[in-house]
Amino acid sequence: MSNNLMELLLTSLGETIYMVVVAILIACLIGIPLGIILTITRKDHILPNAAVHNVLGAIVNAIRSVPFIILMVAIIPFTRLVVGSSIGTTAAIVPLTITCAPFISRIIESSMLEIDPGVIEMAQSMGASPWQIIWKVMLPESLHSVTLGITLALISLIGASAMAGALGGGGLGDLAIRYGYQRFQTDVMIATVIVLIILVQGVQALGNAVSKKLNKTKIS
Amino acid sequence: MIKLVNVEKTYYSKAGDIAALKKTNLEIRDGEIFGIIGLSGAGKSTLIRCINMLEVPTGGQVFVDGKEMTALHGAELRKARQNIGMIFQHFNLLATRTVAQNVAFPLEIQGLPKDQIKSRVDELLKLVQLDERRDYYPSQLSGGQKQRVGIARALASNPKVLLSDEATSALDPQTTKSILALLKDINKKLNLTIVMITHQMEVVKEICDRVAVIENGHIIEQGSMYKVFTEPQEETTKEFVRTVNDIKIPPIIDTADMKPDYFPGSCLLANLEFLSDPDAAQHPDKKSDTAEADQPVVSALVKKFGVDVNIISGKVDYLKDTPYGTLLVEIIGGEKAIQDSLAYLNEVKVKLEVLGYVK
Q1: Which of A46, A112, A122 to mutate to test the interface with B (most CBs of B within 10 A)?
Q2: Structure confidence at residue B343 (pLDDT)
Q3: How do residues B140-197 score in pLDDT, each as one tens digit?
Q4: pLDDT tens-digit profile of B67-76?
């Protein structure tokens, strides 16, 4: 493998990691509170509120319905407003975050619904406030399941980041398209795919390991 | 300690309203163990949750320790709940917390400083004999141990009342006994008022001072456990008593041609219950009007009326701490002798149940 190719791969890998990591962090900051609100405002949960639940749910569903490539183009004005430019790696983070946050909110919601309602009832019976229930019961008890969910979101972000090339975002997907596909450089294509496979495998393995560590219901 | 005045709970839904609890009045005294027994769906779960307002009643008032729970909201209600401990059928322990951290949970909720929490947790773990398991996770414990953690956690904030929601239903009989012994022990040691709902008569029999029987959202019978147990009035109550006190006629006795009246050559089959007044046991000077288990009733029959008494089965049981005996007997003799024997048995106030005459 030529030094040139190695260099290209490393740069692209760096770009992918940068986009995906920043996007997942911001998406978690938005998605986790959103997921908690979606959960607790459900009927029979600690702060039932049909209006809030339904409106947020509809927004989340709407964003999740838009194909990423369309979303990316559609929000160009917003992207420009946020990062000052609509092209480049940093610019790609904005649509990646927006597509990921609603996904994370649903992951959080489904993880939190797995918690035994009896445990939440217990906390209420001890006089815990909603905030204490979220902080001391719901988050810690769902953490192992949330970890797996965020791993899932991270991997789907790696996939989505390949399309960031359309905004000049760079990254491994972009490399595969420009060199491997458009210039018929099969070796670049294969090398990129291998790096992506390793990346995804690594992320999944890490996610599994952390989740297992956090899961106290199965202690060997 | 706890008073329910006309408490009602109705669930409204499009499919129709369900009255889970109909006008219920109940008074639970300071320091007693009060049992509420009923089949599933009878409303006992709703009733116990109305006490700490996990279910908000749709009508009536609930008082706990002089405070009207039904008038409290938000922070005030949460504060009041801290005086009411609760234990659950499925323990409801936090899986991600160790034994000690689970017990610390209600103390953290109250915002106690760390060193105070630690010393209180140590104390509680000793009380429930789990100090060696303090760093175990719930998944590493047996059912009985999990319930002990639940009890320690419920007691953490020094509550005056402990609500027990089917706390022994998921446990095997032996573990049930040890958990009940623990509850009885803390009831005495801490003068804790315990309200327990259950569908198991054994549980009531073992530890309750008073009991209420609930059916279809109604309390159909209530009183001292001894009284309800030995003189059940309602069919459901009798059914519950039978689950722990079923006198079976052994197959060697042919009951196929059992007749209600004497016929030549027959003998009487009767069930005798020897009651002792739990109040009399506490006040020995007070004369009891029921037959004491120490009266030689059977030998008196033999001597006075010349009948033979054949004991078929019998047992002495304890209702909480009061003895209670049953004896299934055959009385063999002439018609007159048998009639005289029955008259005598009624006189000494043995609780007599004539089953019939057999060959």
Answers
A1: A122
A2: 86
A3: 999 999 999 999 999 999 999 999 999 999 999 999 999 999 999 999 999 999 999 9
A4: 999 999 999 9
Put simply, the chain A residues between 113 and 172 with a CB less than 8 A from any chain B CB are 116, 118-119, 121-129, 132, 136-137, 140-141, 143-144
> Smallest CA–CA separation between A200 and chain B, in Å?
28
Residues 132 through 151 of chain B touching chain A, CB cutoff 8 Å: 137-140
Smallest Cβ distance to B109: which of A132, A144, A219? Answer: A132
| CA atoms of A211 and B4, how far apart (whole Å) | 47
The answer to whether ipTM exceeds 0.90 is no
pLDDT tens digits along A112-141 = 999 999 999 999 999 999 999 999 999 999
Contact yes or no for B31/B193 (Cβ under 8 A): yes
Note the pTM of the prediction, 2 decimals: 0.85
Name the stretches of chain A with pLDDT < 70. 1-2, 166, 220
Give the per-residue pLDDT at B282.
Answer: 52
Residue type, A16: T
> Cβ(B163)–Cβ(B152) under 8 Å?
no
Q: Enumerate the residues of chain A whose CB falls inside 8 A of the CB of residue B97.
A: 140, 216
CB pairs under 8 A between A and B: 70
- DSSP string of A80-109? HHHHS-SSSHHHHHHHHHHHHHHHHHHHHH
Q: Does B5 touch chain A (CB under 8 A)?
A: no
Nearest to A172 by CA among A145, A141, A200, A152: A200
Nearest Cα residue to B200 out of B218, B178, B180, B222:
B180
